[in-house]
Each structure stands twice: as structure tokens, then as C-alpha cells.
Description:
Helices cover 33% and strands 21% of the residues. By secondary structure, the protein is of the alpha/beta class.
Amino acid sequence: LLDRAAGLVPKLAPAALVGCGDALAKRxxxxxxxxxxxxxxxxxxxxxxxxxxxxxxRKAELGIQLxxxxxxxxxxxxxxxxxxxxxxxxxGARPYRGGGPHRALVFGPDSHxxxxxxxxxxxxxxxxxxxxxxxxxxxxxxxxxxxxxxxPRTRRTVxxxxxxxxxxxxxxxxxxxxxxxxxxxxxxxxxxYLFYTTHGxxxxxxxxxxxxxxxxxxxxxxxxxxxxx
Length: 229
């Protein structure tokens, strides 16, 4: 009986190892699945199931990478995720080359990501080509100056500026930063009515500088060279 068992193990073990890896992969237990496939390939590199095991190991490795990218992209509202300071690759993503648009995930307090076209926005890490991390808006180029107030004592000239934002652009496939630049988001200036809040009796008149009000077209124009070059 022992001799018969010893003869059956070499026949059954290869299929059992690959089958176990397949079952773990189906449950998205990627690290354990990769271990099973690697164990098979170490023991039976020339087996007829080797090609299947290699495919399974590759799929498991991509699953591990994707899970890590997702973890690093988790963020609180308005903040930057850990990915922006410590990116990692996901080799299953499309490369950042050729014609756009290249679907992107955009993070940052003043990114205006909600204004981007739907075709430019990734649903998640699995279909993203780019991750764009933005800083806070600063005063950009002057667009126009307008004077408000009918009372000479409170009349003031207000300068309307574009929003200047620094962006870091990462290719998801490699985790490599492919661009670092400053974009400026334009918009409409000098509205007919200017609403503002005063604090105390000495705070008369509107503030001397304001940002323009961007439209979806203005946001698209600013991000276009990165997402849809």
C-alpha cells in the first residue's frame, strides 16, 4: 500500500498544487495563490501544467500590485493619498503613450476634478493610466481688474487672477513620475455683483484680489496637455 501511495503522489501533486493556486486566485487571495504557483514551478518546471502555472503566477502578481496601489490611493476628502509621495507600479495598467485621452485619477484640494470630462476620469486604479496629485491653488496670472462700490469711501479695485496649481503626474503602469509642472486655470472675471464678508468696522469694501470662476471648459483646457495631449 505504501508503495502504491508513493507512486501516486508524483502524479497527483502537480495538478493539486495548480488547482489550489487557481482556487486561491478565484477568492483573490493573491499572495497565497502566488506561493502555490511558485512552488509548482520550482518543483515541476517542465510539467505540462507549467504554462498554466506561469499565467496564474503572473495574474497573482498583478493582483498584489493592484491591491497595493488601491491601498495607497485611499484618502480622506480633499487630502492627498500616500501614493502621491510613495507611488508603486501596477503592470496591468495601460502605458502612458500614444493618443489620449489617458484616464486619470486626480487628487488635491483645488483640483476641480469633478469638472473634467467623463472620458478623462478613471473609475478606479484598475482602469487608470495616470494619477495626478495637485497642490493648493495660488494666485496666477492677472485676468482683469474691476472697480466695485458706488461710495467713494468704500470703492475698491479688485484684481481677478487665474488659479495656479502645481501638479505631479504619475504613470500607473510604472509608478514613475512623468511630469511635474504648474497649470493655470482661467475663468470668468468681474461679475456684476461681488459677494464678500467683512469683519469689524475697519474692513470696508471687497478684498483686493479674487480668483476667476472656472468653467468646465477652462478646467479641461488646463488639464488637456496632460490627459489628452
